[in-house]
Each structure stands twice: as structure tokens, then as C-alpha cells.
Amino acid sequence: MAKKTKQAYKQAPWRRQLQSAGFSLVLVIAILAVLSIYLIISAQAASAGLEIMDMHYEEEEIMRIIANERTELAWKTSYTEMQKRAEKAGYQVPPAENVHFMVIPGYQGQNPVLLAPPPGSENTLGPVVNEYYQQSLWDWFYGTFLTTSPTAGVEAVK
Amino acid sequence: MKKDTFSRLTLIGVILSASSLLIVLQMLHIQSSTKHQELSQWADEEYSYAIENYTPERGNIYDRWGRLLAGDEDVYELGVMLEYVTNPDTIARTLEGINGLTYDDVYAVVSKEYDAEDSIYAVITDFLPSGVIDVLSEIKQTYEIENPYGKNPDLPSLRGLIWSSHLKRSYPENSLASNILGFYAFRDRQEGLGYYGVEEYYDNLLAGNAMDTFMPRNPYLLESLPEVPAGASLVLTIDREIQAMVEKKLDEAIEKYGAVSGTVIVLNPENGDIYAMATQPRVNLNEYWKYQEQFKESTPFNRAISETYEPGSVFKVLTMSAAFDAGVVDDETTYYDSGRYEYGGGTILNWDRKGHGEQTMQGCMQKSLNVCLAWVATEKLGKDKFYDYMRAFGIGQRTSIDLGGEEIWPMSVPGDSDWYPIQLATNSFGQGIAVTPIQLAAAISAVANDGKMMKPHVLKAIIQDGKQYNTTPQVLGVPIKAETAKTMTEMLVQSLQNETSLALVPGYKIAGKTGTAEIPVQGQYSTDLTNASFVGWGPADDPKFLIYVWLEKPEASPWGSVVAAPLFSDIAKELVVYLDLPPEDALQNLVAKEG
């Protein structure tokens, strides 16, 4: 027959109160922690969103500035301006009889203009971010300790 | 004690629970009420998105070497937020004189009554350069420091004055190539369109798609941010340097010979690329709204594509080409020119009203004998073949050049109510038939290009979505055989050399033909008023350029050989340098070395 043991003394009321208060507090803290994390993430997302919106407007402004600068440059190198500059520098248009045709070995003439890559070609520009900043910890570890080449980690990323 | 504490705690718990329950219930009630649905929808419509009109950057226009001919520049619209204006007098005094504004103009705008429904913002002026805005910004700041919020009405304040930037079409070359480019009516920011030339023809491509976009105000909805691509940019076949040179030479010739106007087209017969297309008048495209001051009455914006006229003897190139191609004449064929030819109830005379005796076909072309060509068309070719060939050369049809405003004059053919038999004779030497310069240049380019007529065009490439798409030359037709084209070219080379033409270009083998067409005045041809023209191409063995020159009503001399031929030569002499074309002797040396 199992012997029924009975606690001889009850816990002190202040301890019991402390325990229940502690449990409640832990619960509240847990809820608050979850809420805080949610709030922080939401705030960060909103902040990022607003930043993107700002950048969107900034991008528009930059595009306008680029267009403006491009046109400004065209004004400065317009036919009339270049003519003025050439005259100021003492250049003259030679009469036709003074023009002599000379063969310059290897000269192929002016190349056709290519203001953008042709269709089908991939963007030949490299990544904007320096390749060293794209290394993972493993790449760095591998490159530093497991190979002799100092750039091996970077090579692995390429 | 214990009981009391329990009761108090229980009571507080019950009250708090009941309050929470009530709050939750009220929340549920709000969420499920119809009013909530309405409010939610209203809030969504009003505050979730902002409608923004987005007009993409208009595409640029470049010449064949990438030099900008039309771009966009940043300018500012100046306006007032009426609610915040505290001192209209200061604003009016500050802006007086800017963009031609008067004190009263500005005052009338800025002193308008603010109305939250109808009158919040008023535009004062537009298209201000950034320099003016910098100055205004500085003044505004100074006033704001001295009189914060414009609270003191006795002190100056520019409160309420605001500005916003936008792009405006800009033409760095002013009037250069204006007839080709056309213009974009940038002053009409809402309904602005491209007019004439490239701006009209490629308006849709250049403009991109303007749209009202929903800009989410909720930062979590960022994935719906709209991407509005800019308009496509165009690379033209035009060469800015050649265009400028041709315009200069044309202007000088018009002045020198007292012509009413003139037109020059320079193209590559091998692919139809137009290097230059100059005409008068021209307009500064940055002040396009003044164009009506220069283009009075029915003056076309670009005569090269929009003005039809009787071309005269340059047309003989087509008639003779047709005759050779049809095999009805050859190098041995001769004609006795008595100076008169009766046909269809009319009499055909030569330009000098004289007879020139026995002539070969080359002699007919060299001396430009109307009588001989009328005989070729009527006796040798016949009306069916003649008009079939002319159709094949594209006479009476649009070339479909990619410029806005191309016109034609329909060719009358047998069977038409306005066709009479004598027209077969007169049409053979370019009278009684009307063409545009571009039509004739395109038709004759077939003779310069082994019989293949290429579609004349100004578009070399389109730049869209970051890629450059080059255009492919198109063949309009093959009206004559390559052999015929070579024969004609050689004949016209000999003609120029034999008559020691003013069109000759030292060192280069040039083929060409003059033209002098009488202009009908009140139903009668005038011998004083003529259209003087010249068409030539070179180097004759492998043509790289064709130049068509037309001077309208020259006073110095009515003859194409006197006024148009020298202009051709002047242009060709410089053109061979721009195109890096070696002279005959240098070319032979090169060939010998390579051989």
C-alpha cells in the first residue's frame, strides 16, 4: 500500500503570490516580446517601403537631371558652337583643291554608332557590389584556410 | 481580511473583463456594420492610393553618329498655393518681367480667392529655367527669415509661391534639320503632339505611354509601384555635319541665284539612307509656335516630301532607262532631230527651240532634247510600257518615307478623264507630270543602284528598353535590270564629261542630268519661271551617294545647268571628304595594291 505523503507545510502566501505574479509577468512579457518583434518588423518594413517610395521619386528626379545634362552637353557641342570654337582656334575649311586623300593603313573609318547593346546580348556590366562583399562565410573560410590562392573564395562566387 | 481582498480583486477583475469584453464587442460591431464597409471603401479610395499622372521622358533623337538632335531639358512650372498666400503684392513685384509677365498678370492670379473645392492652386507661368528658380528660392528664404510664416503683412513674403520641375523638349541645333525633325508642341503639356517630320511620324514611339498611375500610400503595397518605361529614342540616318554643310550651300545658292526656295536631298542609293535633306524655309524648333510666320499660306514644312512640281529634264533619266530596259533602243539607235515633233494634237519643241540633226541616244540625253525623248516615249515605248515603267519607278505613289506629311500628285494614265495623248509626249521629258523631290530621288536611285530602288528612310535604329534595334533597308522595287542601270550610268557620265558640265567633281567619276522645267502660270507655261534641277550620283562605278538639287524660280538664270549643277558640284566636293571616298586615281592605286 502506497504511503500517502502529505506536505507538512504549505508554501508561504507571499511566495505563492510571487509565483503567480511571476507566471503572469512571464506571459505578459512573452506576449509583449512577440508584439514588439511584430511591431519592429512592421516598422522596419514600413520604413523600407517609405524609403523605396522616396527613392522612386529620387530616381525620377535623377532621370530628369540626366536628360537635362545630356541636352546641356548637346547644346555645348552643337554644330554652331563647335563651328565657333573651331574658328576661334584658327581652323578653316580647306578649299576642295587643297584636300588630298591619304590612305592610313589600318584605318577602317568611323564605326557605326551603338548607343545601347543590341538585342539578345546580355548586360555586360558586372555586379555593382564589390565581389568581396558577396562572399559567404564558407567562401571566406574556404578561400582563407582551405586553398592557397588568396582570391579562391572570390573565384568561387563568380 | 482574506475575504475582503478576494472580493476587491474579483470586483476589479470583473470590471476589467467586462470593459474588455465591451471593447471587443464594440470592435466587432464596428467591423461588421455597413457604415464600416462604406467608410473602409471611402478610406481606400481616398487615402490608399494617390493618382499621379506620369508622362514618360520623350525619347531622344540622334544623328547617325549619336549626336543629339532632340532631347529634353529640366524646366519649372511656377504657381501659388492660394491658401498660403499672405502678400500677393510681393509675389507680383518679384515675378514682374519674368517670362514677359506683368505685375497685373501675376497679381490677378495670386490674389484669387482660395476655395477648398475649386481653387487651391493657380499656375502663374511655366517653362522657367533652373537659374530663375534658384534666385526665387533665395529670395523666398530671405523673406521667410525676416518674416516667418508671412505673419506681418507689412513685410515682404513669398509664402504660397511654389514650383515643380518637369521636362521640356529641346532642340540643341535650333533650326538645323528642322524640316526633317518636325517639332513636339511642348507648350501644350496635356495634349502635346509631334508635328511634321520625325516627331510626327514616330510620335507614338517617342512619347511612350503616358498614364495615370495609382501610387500606393501604404508602404506595404510597394510591389505595386508602377514601372512606366520612357519613350523610345531614335538614331537617324542623317549626318549632322553633312546636313549643316548642305543647308549652308543651299542658302548661299538661293541667295546667289535669286531663287524663291530650294531643296537638296543627299542619300545613299545602296540602302536608301538619307544623309541630308535641306530646304527653305526652316524654323527654330525651340520656338516652333512661330512657324506660321515663316510658312505662310500653303508653304509646306518640308518641300522635299510635300511639294509636288513638274521636274523637267531630270525625268528623262527614267524615260531613257525604260526604253533601254524594254530593249526598244540601244547604243546604236539614232534619231534625226528636226527641232519639232507633232503628237496628240500638240507640238513638242526643244529647250533651245532648235533642231540638232542626227543624234544617238547619248546625244539626246547630253543635249537634253525634248523632241527625241518624246519620240522615244511615243514611237518606241508606247503608252502602256511607258506608264508601266513609270509605275514601277513609283511615280504617282508615296515612297513611304518615314517622315510626316508626304504628299503625291496622282499620275494621269491612259483611260483617266484627265489624260490626253499629248501627255505621253510631254511626260517623257518631265512636263505635265508632277512629283516630289523625294519621289524622283528614290526613282533615279534605282539607276544608281543596279536597278534596285531602295525605300528612302531616315530611321537607322530604335533604342528601346535599353537595347538598340537597327533597321533593315527595304527594297521598294526593281524597275530596271542591273545591265540597264549600268548603261544609263555610263551614258550620263559621258554626257557630263562631254559637255564639261559645271556639275563635275575633279577626281571623281560622276553621272548626272540637269533639268529645267517651265512652270505653268494661269494655264500657260512661262519660259521665265522655271524649276532648275540636277540629279547626280557617284562614284559612278560604285555609287555611294546621290544628290538631288532643285532651285525654284531662280532669277539669275532659268537653266538647271547654270544654277543647279554648280550647287551639286559644291556639295559633292565636300561630301566625298565627309564620306571618305577616294578619288579615281587613289582608288586605282588601292585596287592595284590589293590586287
Folded structure, characterized:
The complex is a heterodimer of chains A (158) and B (595). With 158 residues, chain A is mainly α. Helices cover 57% and strands 0% of the residues of chain A. Chain A has helices spanning 13-76, 79-88, 137-146, 152-157. Chain A is elongated. Chain A starts with 12 loop residues before the first helix and ends with a helix. The model of chain B has no long low-confidence stretch (mean pLDDT 91). Chain B is built from 19 helices and 22 strands. In chain B, helix 3 (88-95) runs antiparallel to helix 4, helix 9 packs antiparallel against helix 18 and helix 12 packs across helix 17. Chain B is α+β, with helices and mostly antiparallel strands. In chain B, strands 2, 3, 4, 5, 9, 17 and 18 form a 7-stranded mixed beta sheet that branches. Chain B folds into 2 domains: 72-170, Alpha-Beta Plaits (2-Layer Sandwich), CATH 3.30.70; 240-594, DD-peptidase/beta-lactamase superfamily (Beta-lactamase), CATH 3.40.710.10. Chain B starts with a helix and ends with a helix. Chains A and B meet through helix 1 of A and strand 3, strand 5, helix 9, strand 18 and helix 18 of B.
